[in-house]
Design a protein that fits this description.
rod-shaped, DNA polymerase, domain 1, three-stranded mixed β-sheet, single chain, mainly alpha
């Protein structure tokens, strides 16, 4: 009976297989292969790794954002005065006056603050043909609520106070006995003019005629005409 050839006995475990493979390959080849693999891996990592951030790249860029912020700030600063100017213009002070008498279009008119009687007359269309233009102080500054009255030729002149109301006494005022309060109710006569009348009376004695009032400081022809019929001696 013939004998069968011997067959290699397979390794019993993974460890035995690994030892057998190492013996077959050889330690030198294993070390060389390991070095080659590590070199390839290191080269691949070096190629695909992200670049290291530089100091310059960390600094904020002076780009559109900063320019937009600066532009917005500049625009805001420029717009603010414009709004303030618009508000100031819209609330500019005005006065409302009543223009009456010998003018083309009597009525109530709105004028800018600081306007004068001439502006009020012009707003009402100017003097009519029968107006006594010399009886009106066109340079006087008008006040809110004032009545600017233009008398006609031959009409008695009445001087009204700045507030627009015409104050007339209930009875003629005696120039030689009147107090400052009594004189103050006369049209166009305020505290200063009343004091001047009394001072003149104390200095020169009792008035001998109404016309003597023209010698008192602050009383001109127009004012004298306005109070002539309201005073007595």
């Amino acid at each position: 009976m013939s004998e069968l050839p011997d067959r290699p006995v397979p390794p019993r475990s993974l460890r035995e297989r690994l030892e057998q493979w190492v013996q077959w390959v050889g330690p030198g080849r294993l070390v060389g292969s390991a070095v080659v693999v590590l070199s390839v891996l290191a080269g691949a990592y070096w190629l695909v790794r992200p670049p290291v951030a530089t100091t310059e790249s960390r600094l904020p860029m002076a780009g559109t954002s900063s320019a937009s912020t600066s532009s917005s700030s500049s625009t805001s600063e420029t717009a603010t005065p414009a709004r303030s100017m618009s508000t100031t213009t819209s609330v500019a002070a005005q006065v409302v006056v009543h223009v009456a008498g010998a003018v083309a279009h009597p009525g109530v008119y709105t004028l800018p603050q600081g306007a004068r009687a001439n502006d009020a007359v012009r707003a009402a269309g100017g003097f009519s043909v029968e107006a006594n233009a010399d009886a009106v102080n066109l340079a006087a500054i008008v006040a809110d609520g004032q009545r600017v009255y233009v008398p006609r030729v031959g009409e008695a002149i009445v001087v009204e106070p700045a507030g627009g109301s015409s104050a007339t006494p209930s009875a003629p005022v005696n120039l030689n006995t009147a107090t400052a309060d009594d004189l103050d109710v006369l049209p166009g006569v305020g505290p200063a003019t009343a004091a001047s009348i009394i001072a003149y009376r104390d200095q020169h004695g009792p008035f001998s005629s109404v016309e003597q009032l023209s010698q008192v400081r602050g009383i001109g022809p127009a004012k004298l005409d306005a109070i002539r019929g309201l005073v007595t001696l």
